[in-house]
Amino acid sequence: MINPTSAVPLYVQVADDLRRRIEMGEFSESGVLPSENGFCEEYEVSRATIRKAIQTLVDDDVLDTRHGKGTFIRQPKIVSSLSTFKGFTYFCHENNIETSSRVLALQEVEPPVAVRRHLRMEENESAVYLKRVRSINHINAMIEHIYLPVKNFGFLLGVDMENASLYETIERETGLRLEDNCFPSIVLEAGLATDEEKRILNIAGEAAMFILSETVYMSTGKPVHFTKQVMLGDYFKYFFSIKANQLGINWRGLEAVKCRKQ
């Protein structure tokens, strides 16, 4: 396994063997690697060698170290399009990533002023509030806050949203297929995790987060729901596509100008 007489440095040999074991799925169930001391005994090398091997894999985006938590296999990023009206579960399945949810709150509330404004709700109207943590490959990666008007979606208060898709439930109960009849308005920004978010997502120290705020509208312009997703930046990648005619660009006109200049 490790050849002390080889010209290849010991830490490189250890790193290569760990990479092979990771690719074979040896640590995939939990994603957590054994302790440095365990690897020292297994490979019969010093702790400094193990640390250098692990750092090599961290630099190669294979591993991720978290202070006070240990060393983890870096999960593949979920690649999502802001130009497509698809949800978290859809993109996880597209990326062959296992997902799960845990409901932290499902109740009727008086929504914050900003949410009330997004949903064009009257002052005396209440909302269904769904708060859940979304996990990818057993790692808490996102906190989701969803608000919907009670007068239209009060039935959700009696649904086990830990094991149900929000959109599928709405379609089943109302006949409304959101993906076909609605459009989103999205704001994506970066920020740092709050103390509560660190606790829920098992974060030690500072962490860069994606914060996605989305208001979904019917084709008529009527708001359906407001969602805020707070995500670990290490696990998500967003892109969007835009057509020239959406920007008001006349490519033929630009080509004609280019020809005249030549």
Q: How would you sum up this structure, described in words?
A:
This protein is of the alpha+beta class. The protein has eleven helices and ten strands. The chain has a six-stranded antiparallel β-sheet with strand order 4-5-6-9-8-7. Strands 1-2 form a two-stranded antiparallel sheet. It is elongated. Residues 254-262 have low confidence and may be disordered.
Our Rg estimate from Cα atoms comes to 24 Å
What share of residues is helical?
Answer: 25-40%
Q: Specify the structural class.
A: alpha+beta
According to DSSP, the number of beta strands is 10
Q: Write down the domain tally.
A: 2
**Named CATH architecture of the largest domain:** 3-Layer(aba) Sandwich
CATH class of the largest domain: Alpha Beta
Poorly predicted spans: 254-262
Largest sheet: 6 strands, antiparallel
Average predicted local confidence, pLDDT: 83
Distance, first to last CA: 65 Å
